Each structure stands twice: as C-alpha cells, then as structure tokens.
Amino acid sequence: ERSWEQVQALGTYTVGEILYRHTFMIMPEAIHLFPPEVRLKYREWSPDEGDDESNVYQSSALRKLFSKFVNAVGCAVVGLHDSSKLVPMLTQLGARHISYGVNEAHWETLGKAFKSALREILRESFTQEGEGAW
Predict the structure, then answer these.
(1) What was the pLDDT predicted at 121?
(2) What is the DSSP letter of 133?
(3) Which long-range contacts (CB under 8 A, 24 or more apart) does 72-77 make?
(4) pLDDT value of position 126
(5) Measured CA distances, 22 to 6, 49, 50, 67 (Å)
(6) What number of other Cβ atoms are within 10 A of residue 72's Cβ?
(7) pLDDT of residue 130
(8) How far is the C-alpha of 67 from the C-alpha of 21, rounded, in Å?
(9) What is the model's pLDDT at position 72?
(10) Distance CA 49, CA 32 (A)
(11) What is the pLDDT of residue 94?
(12) Is 37 exposed, middle or buried (0-12, 13-18, 19+ CB in 10 A)?
C-alpha cells in the first residue's frame, strides 16, 4: 500500500502513459486492440489535447484509457480488505474486456508492464518484497 501512495502522487494520467508504453514495448501487437475509433472514444476534446491520434505513443486518449486501469488497480488496493466488493468488480471488469478481444496473454502482458512501470516510477524503493506484493 505504501508504494501505491507513491504511484498516486505521480498521478493516474502520468502512470497510465508509462503503463501503455511498457505494454506496447512488451507486446507491440496489442496496439491493434486500440484502433483510432476506440481511441476517439477516450479523447478529452480539449484545446490543449491536440487532435493527432496517429502516433499511439503520444496518444492522450490512451493515456486516459490506461489511467482507468491504474484507477482500477487503486480500487483493488483499497479493496484488498473487502473481497466481497473487490471480486465482483474485478469479475465484471474482466468479463467486459473479453468482448473487446482481450485474452489471458494480454492480461499477463499488462501485469508485466505494470510491474515494469512501477520499477520505473519507484526506482530503488521498488524492492523484491514490493514486487512480490504486487
């Protein structure tokens, strides 16, 4: 939970961007899950956002979308002590993503990418014990 506080301090959008970059480094073919029409759904449509979604590595929409995953992780961290609420939420989330074409390999990659992002964010405070807890 202490490492989660450090992640929160950085902000979910920043962590989301780090996360999607690590995800695509590990599994470049996962980019096909986020075609332009999907990314458009997650645009902020603010003047400072820009409207070029051609480069997925600079996508404000993907930053927002992956920040939702970071928020879900936050809910899981907070809900660790109440599995009666946590398990149904995670089950529903997983079921919804099956219809998007997400499979077990994608979840495994996202888990690896999340640990890699944590390693980048937390640096020396990302210990073996902390990694095991995640």
Answers:
(1) 92
(2) H
(3) 73/4, 73/114, 74/4, 74/8, 74/12, 77/1, 77/4
(4) 86
(5) 19, 22, 23, 14
(6) 13
(7) 77
(8) 12
(9) 84
(10) 22
(11) 77
(12) exposed
Q: Say which residue the tokens 């660790």 belong to.
A: 80
Q: Residue 95: CB partners within 8 Å, gap ≥ 6?
A: none
Q: Which residues contact 119 (CB under 8 A, 6 or more apart)?
A: 126, 131
Are 113 and 31 contacting, i.e. CB atoms less than 8 angstroms apart? no
Q: Which amino acid is at 4?
A: W
pTM of the model: 0.79
What's the token pair of residue 43?
Answer: 């645009």
Task: Report the pLDDT value the prediction gives residue 82, as an integer from 0 to 100.
Answer: 74
Low-confidence ranges of the chain (pLDDT < 50): none
Cβ(110)–Cβ(69) under 8 Å? yes
For tokens 């944590």, the residue is 118
Eight-class DSSP state of 104: H
